[in-house]
Amino acid sequence: MPPVIEVSGLYCRYGMTHALSDVSFAVEAGDYLAVVGPNGSGKSTLVKALLGLSSCDEGEITLFGTPLPEFTDWRTVGYLPQNLNLFNPIFPATVSEVVGLGLLAGKRFPKRISRDDKSRIAETLEQMGIADLRHRLIGDLSGGQQQRVMLSRALVNQPKLLILDEPTAALDPETRDRFYALLTEINRNRGTTLILVTHDSATVGNCASKLLYLDKKLIFIGTFQEFCVSPEMTGHFGGAAQHQICRLH
Ligand code: ADP
Question: pTM (2 decimals)?
Answer without folding.
Answer: 0.88
